[in-house]
Amino acid sequence: MTETEHDPSQPSSHPPSPSPGQPAPLSATTPVAQLDDLSRLFGSFAALRRIQYTFLPGKCYVLLGENGAGKSTLLRILAGLLPPSHGTITLFGSFTPAQACGRIGYMSHAPMLYDELTGVENLAYFAALYPRSQTLAPELALQQVGLDPALPRKVGQYSQGMRQRASLARVLMAQPELLLLDEPFSNMDIQSAHQMVALLDKLRQPGRTVVLTTHQRELALPIADCMLTLHAGQIASEGSAHRP
Q: Strands 86-91 and 104-107, how do they pair?
């Protein structure tokens, strides 16, 4: 064997390179999102004002604040659905939201599902919209959120908790590294809300960052690493959550 050859039975001293077309994994210190002097105006109204913040990988961030504080606007900018009026946003070290859209999952207030289709039919439709094949199978995505893919019931007949879980399954199919959830506990009864909290805790994994908005601080506390309170478009306070 020559000096330039490698014995496949021996471990390599070099880490494996990412597959072609696949992003390199983030280091523990590379920000998932970096917001620099970020503002968003709607006419003369400043929904966000000079936000400076760093989101790190593998953390769960909970955005708190009254209606109009800027929570949903911030989430939509992270998702690439709104551009900032001023300042910059950098994702995964060097990308714009548009460049990183395949690595982001966004769940809005609306479930974005077709009432006349079953859960698995909905997910099969959305899976066909992805240009690449690296998505979870609809059946597996539904199983991840505790729904039976064989259930013949139409989504229009689902409870609110089931609709929210099916919406989350739709987002999880793309296996996002940055998961953005706008009011995931909205309109749920207390039992369904606690089930959603347990589900989100189960879905936490190394390298996946979760940013969610809620008015229900105590409900989100068990899964939060950091609580950010927004007021009048600015981060008014930041605190580390003491998870049980």
A: unpaired
Give whole-number Cα distances, 196 to 22, 92, 140, 174, 199, in Å.
31, 27, 17, 19, 5
First to last CA, the chain: 55
What six digits make up the tokens of 203?
């879905």
Provide CB contacts within 8 A for 91, sequence distance 6+: 32, 33, 34, 78, 97, 99, 100, 103, 104, 178
pTM as predicted:
0.85
The tokens of 141 are what? 């995505």
Q: Is 128 helix (H, G, I), strand (E, B) or coil?
A: coil
Mention every residue, 6+ apart, whose C-beta is less than 8 A from residue 6: 12
Which H or E run contains 234?
A: strand 234-240
Write the pLDDT tens digit of every residue in 179-222.
Answer: 999 999 988 888 889 989 998 988 877 779 999 999 988 999 99
Bridge-based pairing of strands 33-42 and 45-55 is antiparallel
Q: How many CA atoms lie within 13 A of 202 on its CB side?
A: 11
Task: Give 18's contacts (C-beta < 8 A, 6+ positions apart).
Answer: 24, 25
Query: Please, are residues 230 and 70 in contact by the beta-carbon 8 Å criterion?
Result: yes
- φ, ψ of residue 131 in degrees (nearest 5): -70, -20
Residues linked to residue 34 through DSSP beta bridges, in sequence order:
54, 90
The answer to whether the beta carbons of residues 38 and 51 sit under 8 Å apart is yes
Distances (CA, A) of 204 to 15, 55, 101, 208, 243: 25, 15, 20, 7, 13
- Per-residue pLDDT band for 25 (boundaries 50, 70, 90) equals low
